[in-house]
Design brief:
- The protein contains five helices and 18 strands.
- It is an alpha+beta fold and 377 residues long.
- It has two domains: 3-50 and 273-372, no CATH class; 58-107 and 137-263, no CATH class.
- Strands 1, 6, 7, 8, 11, 12 and 13 form a seven-stranded mixed sheet that branches. Strands 2, 3, 9, 10, 14, 15 and 18 form a seven-stranded mixed sheet that branches.
- Helix 1 runs antiparallel to helix 3 (265-306) and helix 4 (310-343) runs antiparallel to helix 5.
- It is flat.
Length: 377
């Protein structure tokens, strides 16, 4: 059953909030500059680190230790294995594994909301929020005390702690070499552990398939997963019979990689550089959005003023969006360009030129529009 709640926000209240948002918008806009500048420096440093690592890495064997490679960046492929038995005494589950995970979930009511807004003449906004309810397996307790409709949607208190508990093997080796705790934590390929059906208490059971027939609110589902021994690839500095981080001479940044599967050294650093580029673009987008959303917040009072007549406010909203983009885009490009001039001059100059071209095109289009506008007689 759905419940709809309708609220009205007055024009004066909206206008006051929009003016309060100007300072926050300015802070967002300003925050975009150092974020973009720092991100470019980080990206360049990570690229140099990956390039140095790819040039410095040497091949090593999992089954033997060469003293001549002590302290050097080595690339090793082998099976990560352990004899440690991990056990969950509470449920009587054990397995020889690198990692053992237990997830405890409860079948609960969950509230969902969908909000729609409609502008009214005079600048008011009518906001309709519809609340719906569904039953789901959740690994966190959901309080039904704040539900808009509690009748028929009451969640009982959890009878045991929900969530995920993890255990890691202490002794994991690749050949004759011992992996560090940090490396052990990076090993993936988690897979379900089939546990014989075994009721513990009323409404509590093990399940691995997630297809429990007709669960009831308050039921507890316990699922186990493991990371079994398998082939991994390690790139790190050799430290006796174990590993440590390798410090790049050019950037003083550390290098240590562990990946599932057999991957050659070139592939490891190629993957690292792909991750670097992905993060760089994510942070560039975030930096631009900070600038854009910040400027939109600064210009929001104009939109609210125009909303006295809704279609005028909509036109102004589009206009402020274009203005915010026209300012934020060149600012972001100039900031990135300046950073690249600082870190890599040739690319930085090209970005500055691109930003100037965008600004010139915007100015030229506005000038042409003014020239084409009819003059008053």
């Amino acid at each position: 059953m759905a419940v709809t709640e309708t609220t009205t926000i007055g024009w004066g209240s909206r206008l006051g909030s929009s003016f309060k948002g100007i300072l926050f918008g300015l802070l967002m806009f300003i925050a975009g500059f150092p974020l973009l500048f720092w991100n470019e420096g980080r990206a360049v440093a990570d690229t140099k680190t990956n390039e140095e690592g790819a040039a410095s890495v040497v091949e090593a064997q999992a089954g033997e230790i060469d003293p001549a490679q002590e302290g050097k960046l080595v690339h090793i492929v082998g099976e990560a294995t352990t004899e440690d038995v991990l056990s969950d005494a509470e449920y009587g589950v054990s397995a020889t594994a690198i990692r053992l995970e237990r997830e405890v979930e409860m079948y609960q009511w969950v509230e969902h909301s969908r909000t729609e807004e409609e502008k009214k003449l005079g600048g008011k906004i009518e906001r309709k929020t519809t609340y719906t309810y569904s039953k789901q397996w959740c690994s966190n307790p959901v309080s039904s005390d704040s539900f808009k409709e509690q009748e028929g949607h009451i969640n009982p208190p959890a009878r045991r702690e929900l969530g995920t508990a993890r255990q890691y093997a202490k002794n994991v080796t690749i050949g004759v070499r011992r992996l560090t705790d940090s490396q052990i934590g990076r090993i993936g390929r988690l897979e379900g552990l089939v546990v014989k059906y075994q009721p513990v208490t009323t409404n509590e059971f093990f399940d691995i398939t997630g297809t429990v027939a007709e669960p009831r609110v308050g039921d507890i589902r316990v699922t186990f997963s493991v990371v079994k021994p398998h082939v991994v690839t390690v790139v790190a500095a050799q430290a006796g019979s174990t590993f440590m981080s390798y410090t790049a001479k050019s950037t003083k940044k550390s290098i240590t990689h562990l990946m599932d599967g057999a991957i050659d050294a070139e592939g490891v650093f190629a993957a690292a550089e792909r991750g670097n580029k992905f993060l760089t673009w994510i942070l560039r987008i975030i930096g631009f959005l900070l600038m854009y959303r910040g400027l939109k917040a600064v210009l929001e009072p104009l939109v609210v003023l125009g909303d006295v007549v809704p279609f005028i406010g909509s036109i102004i909203n589009v206009g402020t969006g274009l203005v915010a983009f026209a300012v934020a885009a060149p600012c972001a490009l100039v900031t990135i360009g300046i950073a690249w001039i600082f870190y890599r001059p040739l690319v930085g100059i090209a970005l500055i030129v691109a930003a100037a071209a965008i600004a010139f095109l915007v100015w030229k289009r506005r000038a042409a529009a003014k020239a084409a506008a009819p003059t008053a007689a």
